[in-house]
Each structure stands twice: as C-alpha cells, then as structure tokens.
Amino acid sequence: xxxxxxxxxxxxxxxxxxxxxxxxxxxxxxxxxxxxxxxxxxxxxxxxxxxxxxxxxxxxxxxxxxxxxxxxxxxxxxxxxxxxxxxxxxxxxxxxxxxxxxxxxxxxxxxxxxxxxxxxxxxxxxxxxxxxxxxxxxxxxxxxxxxxxxxxxxxxxxxxxxxxxxxxxxxxxxxxxxxxxxxxxxxxxxxxxxxxxxxxxxxxxxxxxxxxxxxxx
Length: 217
Description:
By secondary structure, the protein is an alpha/beta fold. The chain has two domains: 14-129, NAD(P)-binding Rossmann-like Domain (Rossmann fold, 3-Layer(aba) Sandwich), CATH 3.40.50.720; 171-215. It has helices at residues 22-31, 46-58, 60-66, 99-111, 149-164, 171-182, 188-197, 203-212, and strands spanning 14-18, 37-41, 70-73, 91-94, 115-118, 131-135, 138-142. The strands form two sheets. A five-stranded parallel beta sheet has the order 3-2-1-4-5, with helices on both faces. A hairpin with a 2-residue loop joins strand 6 and strand 7. The longest helix has 16 residues, at 149-164.
C-alpha cells in the first residue's frame, strides 16, 4: 500500500462510525476533538458510554459541548435498510465484527465516493489511523503503512520520551508571530530568516514580534 500522509480538518464535516465495540469506541473517542458532525451507529454502546463517562469526569465542559453534536443511532446496520445513513459523509469508519457486512458497507461507500476505513482489513481501506503523539499544538503521526501496528506503537513509545522533554508551550505564540512577520514591510529574504528563527526565540522575543512587528521594517 502506498500512502500519502495528511492531517485532515474535519470541522463541520459529516463522519460516521459503524460498530461500537472496542475498536469503534476508540475511533469515536479519537474524533471528539475534531469538531466534526459525528454519527455513531451500534446497538451495544456500553463501551462508548463508559468511555464518555470517564472523559466527562476528567473534562466535563468538553463532553458537555461535544455531546449535542453526536447523533447516536442505537441499532446495528441492516443491509437494505440503512444505506441512506452513508450518504453525505466525508469519512466512514466500519468497525463491526461481521466481515461480510464490513465489506458490503465499504463497497457501498466506494460507490458513493466516500473514504472508508475497515477496521478488520486495513490494507483494503482508503486510509488508516496512524499512532499519534500530541503535546500542546505539536502532532506527530507514526505509521508502518498498515504492516505492523505493533511496530508503530514501539516507535511511538520511543519518541514519547523525547517529546515529553520538549518545550511546546510557545507553539501558539510562534503561529501568531509568524502571521505578523509575513505582513511586515521588509524584504522576502529577511522574512524567511525571521521565520527560520522562530523555533529558537524565547517567549519574550516571540511576544515582541507578535505585539510590535507591525511597526518593524
């Protein structure tokens, strides 16, 4: 499988998860912070309810803001009855324990031109979920191209020690300073040099550019 790595902006996009066992619950929980319009479908939602309750106990405001944007369908997908739920989606995650059903839904998604992930057949999917490390605004994704998720997890564990020691608090400051620098009335080569220096600036210098670079140059 030849994969093209991207990070998707799913805000306001329609996303569907079918099957809410261990894998479907994990996919659902991973989508909560994306701002997507999420539909989850499956009769047995106990694992998802437990995961949501645990998240709510830790980040109550987050869950209260997200839940109104989740469409819960408490029934299993039925062939010949539920195909309409596929329409208009940007991504579909198929996570049922029925291999034939998963194949049927994936083929229907393909006919509709919708990107689909089959949890049971990663190599036949349109995309895969990489292992992810997140700290502040830093996102690192790791993939073995679907060959060995265990190897991806091993690499993730190795990198987590490095990332934990990084000072990522300034990333948002860098973003704001970057936008201001791009608008400065200076030569392009000077802008490029300033942008290259951003990761090496301390917070005071970053704030200085953010606050005052409109007056520079």
